From TrEMBL:
Transmembrane segments: none annotated. GO terms for cellular component: cytosol. Disulfide bonds join 24-27. This is Thiol reductase thioredoxin. PANTHER family: GEO12009P1. It holds the Pfam family Thioredoxin. SUPFAM superfamilies: Thioredoxin-like. Belongs to the thioredoxin family. GO terms for biological process: cell redox homeostasis. The active site is at 24 (nucleophile), 27 (nucleophile). The lineage of its organism: Bacteria, Pseudomonadati, Bacteroidota, Flavobacteriia, Flavobacteriales. It comes from Chryseobacterium hagamense.
Length: 99
């Protein structure tokens, strides 16, 4: 996963990573928000979900201490990272800012 993950975040397009856990209720809320964000931004950015229980080393590498944690990468650089549930407008604006 880490090689594939690196290829994904090295993209010219911004990539929103959703670090989540299947047992996390707020993560389920965030997931439905991200579906709408995807509709809003189309092909201008990617949204990828990473299960912290399946990939604990990846979560640790990026300092994920709580779920959900969202991070935006572009060209391998982390541009923004925050924990908690975020709304559609905030995330859409953030992604548009980095396209």
């Amino acid at each position: 996963m880490s090689q594939k993950f690196q290829e994904i975040i090295d993209s010219e397009r911004p990539v929103l990573i959703d670090f989540f856990a299947t047992w996390c209720q707020p993560c389920k809320v965030q997931s439905s928000v991200l579906n709408t964000v995807k509709e809003n931004i189309g092909e201008n950015a990617r949204i990828i979900k990473v299960d912290v229980d399946q990939y604990p080393a990846l979560a640790s590498q990026y300092g994920v201490r709580g779920v959900p944690t969202l991070a935006i990468f572009k060209k391998g650089e982390i541009l923004w990272k925050e924990s908690g549930v975020h709304d559609v407008n905030t995330l859409t604006q953030l992604l548009k800012q980095y396209t």
